[in-house]
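Inputs:
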Amino acid sequence: MKQQEPSPRKAPSPVPSGIAPGLGLTTHESVYRQLRDRILCGGFAPGEAVTLRGIADELGVSPMPIRDAVRRLIAERALEMRDNRRVLVPPMTRTKFTQILFARKALEPELAGLALSRLTPKAISKIEAIDDGLGRSVSAGDPQGYMRGNYQFHFTLYERAAAEMLLALVASVWLQFGPFMRMAYGRLGTSDLTDFHEVAISAMKDRNETALRRAITDDIEQGMGYIGDTVLGRRQ
Amino acid sequence: MKQQEPSPRKAPSPVPSGIAPGLGLTTHESVYRQLRDRILCGGFAPGEAVTLRGIADELGVSPMPIRDAVRRLIAERALEMRDNRRVLVPPMTRTKFTQILFARKALEPELAGLALSRLTPKAISKIEAIDDGLGRSVSAGDPQGYMRGNYQFHFTLYERAAAEMLLALVASVWLQFGPFMRMAYGRLGTSDLTDFHEVAISAMKDRNETALRRAITDDIEQGMGYIGDTVLGRRQ
DNA sequence: TCACCCCCATTGTGATCACAAATTTGGCGC
DNA sequence: GCGCCAAATTTGTGATCACAATGGGGGTGA
């Protein structure tokens, strides 16, 4: 999956498909997806430094495609470059948290609403299956699996909206709170609150747009509540 | 130290408004700002091809910093890379237009509302001065000046919100409809509709948040109406 | 006249090197 | 020991080159 030799060159399949690194994908695209996935699943700690040569050695490629991927993630605000040109995973602040919460509530219910009329029963089943797997990840104590499942739950729905531009905005927002979800993971199992994912699935089956938007909003507020309490302290 | 030369470089060519290249800035940062400014002011036509070496020759630098700047603009959706790896200024579509309108109405009034309590009288005067210059640009038949002024009017206000993350989302949205504003420019002078910029300035002076949000919303709807009619046709 | 195909210029990708700024480290003087 | 300065390392930036894929242009054949 990693070519570190200058000689072996091949990219026979021009068709990009799948996350499989180096199968019709450019190197920087493959690197980008790996880093992005890692950020979304809590694989980086907030404040952690990211260096081009460090990632390059780790993934076994030259620094150049890393440079492309990191620059893209910086533009998406998934990473941050300080004035000293050091790259790091951005820390959370209270005001940034407030903005993320607002943006999510402003955009995600709309995406869900747009998606509803395009949701096939098959797609709903897929989302339901993802949610089942999500529950298993919680039981198994698998934070990364939980985060990936939660992401898939929301974005499998949102992608049906056929609103690529709004989807990109929301993806950027998720990248910005990804590293903090992990820190809130511990509270998930103990909660006896409503599972708004199931409420949302019911609303999908009922084709009830109002209820779906409500469930997504509630899920956002509950989830961000976990993160806000855990990361920023319940008061302060 | 800019570039030591393996070949003679010529004078920095057409930079319409003063973004001086190289004032403690990296080359790619300078290139990024020039390209960004050009996109926001209608300096590129939708569908126009953008090549690394083409821009590099035009700006008199090597392709490398161009590559960085273009990749950043692609991530911000100001430019688009097709599957064939060709880079171009994205064309508008009806569904993209709808998403842009929604995102603007969802985010910009909030930024204006957040900014209001931080607006000093001096800042209001500055915004008023920008609006005056905007009127002069219309009278003088200066599309670029109008677009730059319009951008400054909105973002001078929004920047006061101290909500950097929301500001970045909105900036990305503006970059996506920038190339189309120019095509709608011709209709501006002839209109006898309400000038919502002036309504907004009055609301700022009155410290009336509701009125300000309303004025921004109205301005968005009116302005995007121009663009939508012009670019997409009044029907279809 | 038109369709097809081959050749070549163009384009983005990735590797490697040189360089300057920032950081870290080591050691010297007090 | 402690603080401070200089050497060494690390890091992003920019240039240059090689390469493969794409696209355009021109020529050939029916």
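The first strand of chain B starts at residue 80 and ends at 81. Flag for discussion at group meeting.
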